[in-house]
């Protein structure tokens, strides 16, 4: 396999180093805007050098961002090159263009490192759904948010200090708002739902609440009630249709989710035969993510295409009622639904997830967290 590698940042450099140790693949060209030299690969600033090289059969995209990653990946596919990418924003945003194109061109299109970093999540989901119906997917999918929340709960670190540390360790996206506002987790649950249920989730119907408004007073209130806050995604089949959303969620101390430390991820599927299966590991970082990119390259060598056939667009319904902790804003809707007072915040009676997220959109300064159903 001859690889054209796009990007030489945290992930790209790791891919290059791991690929060098193998006989069955070679990084022939690297597209990178910095002046570097490599002993065994040509470094270029011009993507056309990769596109027009017929000896390159596979493009590994590790640039991140939507543009020009989308244009480069699409052009490479049109030229008949297989794609491996770790870019969840790219795949989640352009799913309805890239997946049909891969299928039309009969190419391999793999993106396992896009969800869960080093965890073999999408590849196992692909295997799992062959022999059962997947009822539910989701979990802790963002290392940066878990790092921040873990540090705030365990060591009393401030939100800003914890975010700075996560950035220093290379976990955070270029714009940290992508992590802390839940957008990265949103990309990951869109992608996971599409693979699990064989559909294309309508992105606008999947609501997101992040952690940027959390304060020490919230953590104190949770700890007083024996709870730990995590940023969690959920997508499940319900009688009304598929529900899917991203929101901070409160788990009892001692539960599996509450125990996830540092930047680790914990991602779960529930299958009709397998029941609950959880995957725990490094959700970010150079070598864990590059490891999964390499796994995908090996899958390309063995001819694996995309994970599932392209499926129709469906809207998330989100009608299930949950109780929510809310602090930082109020109005008559919240007052009517208040059941308890926790420090500066309140806890609601059960409210439909879609209704609570609609309220949050109108009150973005508020912090909210769902009480888990455990
Ligand atoms: N920023 C992401 C995270 C990187 O913190 O999980 C891995 O997707």
Automatic annotation (TrEMBL):
Identify the stretch annotated as signal peptide in this record. none
Looking at the record's lineage, which domain of life comes first? Bacteria
Q: In which pathway does it act?
A: Amino-acid biosynthesis; L-threonine biosynthesis; L-threonine from L-aspartate: step 3/5; Amino-acid biosynthesis; L-methionine biosynthesis via de novo pathway; L-homoserine from L-aspartate: step 3/3
Which reaction is catalysed here?
Answer: L-homoserine + NADP(+) = L-aspartate 4-semialdehyde + NADPH + H(+)
What residues form the catalytic site here? 188
Q: Which UniProt keywords are present, listed alphabetically?
A: Amino-acid biosynthesis, Methionine biosynthesis, NADP, Oxidoreductase, Sodium, Threonine biosynthesis
Q: Which residues bind NADP(+)?
A: 7-12
For this protein, what is the EC number? 1.1.1.3
Matching entries from InterPro entries are given as:
Asp/hSer_DH_NAD-bd, HDH_cat, HDH_short, NAD(P)-bd_dom_sf
Q: Where does NADPH bind?
A: 88
Q: Which residues form the Homoserine dehydrogenase catalytic domain?
A: 123-298
Keyword Oxidoreductase listed? The answer is: yes
Could you say which residues bind L-homoserine here?
173
Q: What's any GO biological process attached to this entry?
A: methionine biosynthetic process
Class of the enzyme per the UniProt entry, highest EC level: oxidoreductase
Q: Where is the Aspartate/homoserine dehydrogenase NAD-binding domain?
A: 7-106
**A UniProt-annotated Pfam family:** Homoserine_dh
**Molecular function terms in GO for this entry?**
homoserine dehydrogenase activity; NADP binding
Similarity comment: family membership: Belongs to the homoserine dehydrogenase family.
Its recorded name reads: Homoserine dehydrogenase
């Amino acid at each position: 396999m001859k690889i054209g590698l796009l990007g030489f940042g945290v992930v790209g450099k790791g891919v290059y180093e791991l690929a060098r140790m193998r006989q069955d693949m070679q990084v022939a060209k690297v597209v990178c805007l910095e002046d570097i030299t490599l002993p065994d690969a040509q470094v270029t600033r011009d993507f056309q050098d990769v596109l027009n090289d017929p000896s390159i059969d596979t493009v590994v995209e590790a640039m991140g961002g939507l543009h020009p990653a989308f244009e480069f990946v699409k052009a490479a596919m049109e030229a008949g090159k297989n794609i491996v990418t770790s870019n969840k924003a790219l795949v989640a945003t352009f799913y309805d263009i890239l997946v049909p194109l891969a299928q039309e061109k009969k190419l391999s299109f793999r993106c396992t490192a896009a969800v869960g970093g080093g965890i073999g999540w999408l590849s196992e989901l692909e295997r799992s759904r062959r022999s059962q119906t997947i009822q539910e997917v989701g979990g802790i999918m963002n290392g940066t948010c878990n790092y921040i929340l873990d540090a705030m709960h365990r060591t009393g670190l401030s939100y800003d200090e914890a975010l700075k540390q996560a950035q220093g360790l290379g976990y955070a996206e270029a714009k940290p708002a992508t992590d802390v506002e839940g957008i990265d987790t949103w990309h990951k649950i869109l992608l996971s739902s599409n693979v699990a249920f064989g559909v294309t989730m309508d992105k606008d119907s999947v609501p997101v609440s992040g952690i940027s408004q959390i304060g020490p007073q919230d953590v104190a209130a949770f700890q007083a009630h024996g709870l730990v806050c995590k940023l969690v995604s959920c997508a499940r089949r319900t009688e009304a249709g598929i529900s899917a959303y991203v929101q901070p969620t409160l788990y009892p101390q001692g539960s599996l989710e509450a125990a996830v430390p540092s930047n680790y991820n914990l991602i779960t599927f529930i299958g009709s035969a397998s029941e609950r299966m959880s995957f725990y590991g490094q959700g970010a970082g150079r070598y864990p993510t590059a490891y999964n990119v390499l796994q995908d390259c090996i899958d390309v060598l063995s001819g694996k295409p995309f994970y599932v056939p392209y499926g129709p667009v469906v809207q998330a319904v989100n009608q299930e009622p949950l109780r929510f902790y809310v602090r930082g804003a109020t109005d008559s809707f919240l007052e009517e639904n208040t059941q308890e007072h926790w420090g500066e915040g309140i806890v609601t009676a059960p409210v439909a997830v879609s209704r609570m997220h609609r309220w949050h959109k109108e009150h973005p300064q508020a912090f909210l967290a769902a009480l888990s159903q455990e």
